[in-house]
Write a structure and sequence with these properties.
By secondary structure, the protein is of the alpha/beta class. 38% of the residues lie in helices and 22% in strands. A 6-stranded parallel sheet has the order 2-1-3-4-5-6, with helices on both faces. Helix 2 packs parallel to helix 3. The protein is globular. The N and C termini lie far apart (30 Å).
């Protein structure tokens, strides 16, 4: 079971995501902004990180993902970006910074937990989830 880091600035959304993935993870860690997410990631070395893109502070989810990929000890983490942004440029930027998946809000939690259960099968691919 993987270690998962949930990075979301909205408290209620973060708690809901933590509850949704708890049964799929050995441990779940939380952060509310990009800077603290990078600190937690360095300390805990999660297998999977779920980043909200738009967050307060100097480091958003895209920047945090790119910074994470630059660290040899963290670059293998499976990164899922989550955002209400749904443009082709947003998806291209997510791929450019090294994200493994992009879920457009609102999304079905079942699809997210399905990916978490099978994330190793998607290494090297880019998963895009846009719910109708």
């Amino acid at each position: 079971m993987p270690k998962i880091l949930i990075v979301e600035d909205q408290d209620e959304t973060r708690k809901m995501l933590c509850l949704a993935v708890q049964k799929h993870a050995a441990q779940v860690f939380e952060a509310s902004d990009g800077a603290s997410a990078l600190q937690v990631a360095e300390e805990q070395r999660p297998d999977l990180i779920l980043f909200d893109i738009v967050m307060p502070g100097e480091i958003n989810g895209l920047q945090a993902c790119e910074m994470l990929r630059a660290k040899p000890e963290l670059k293998s983490a499976f990164v899922i970006l989550v955002s209400g942004l749904a443009g082709v440029k947003d998806f291209a930027e997510a791929k450019r910074v090294g994200a493994n998946a992009y879920f457009v809000k609102p999304f079905r939690l079942g699809r997210l937990t399905e990916l978490i259960d099978n994330y190793e099968k998607f290494a090297g691919k880019f998963v895009l989830e846009v719910s109708p």
